């Protein structure tokens, strides 16, 4: 896989995170360059999020896990984070297996329930 940035300044919208499309199998030699791309995208991104489109990576393996872990580490060191777009269910399962948690685009963030929201209790229900 090769990546060549477009000439000129990137167009940045304050509400839209930067997107990095990852396609094909990524070789170990390309990981350093991709980490540099993530670092550069975070510098010009007020949302401090880089969306990694992983739909084109192919079947997941430990190389993919290593790549995503390194990209996440690079983003964290730069004060940002990675969000995955279109991950294969097998990739999601593999990341869970090795203990890596990634925010996935389209899934709600894991947060506490909103304050003031209570469950309705029917009369006669046993106490919790």
From TrEMBL:
Q: Which residues form the MlaB-like STAS domain?
A: 20-100
SUPFAM superfamilies according to UniProt: SpoIIaa-like (SSF52091)
- Which InterPro entries does the UniProt record give? MlaB-like_STAS (IPR058548), STAS_dom_sf (IPR036513)
State a single Pfam family of this protein.
STAS_2
Q: Where is this region: Disordered?
A: 107-128
Name under which the protein is recorded: STAS domain-containing protein
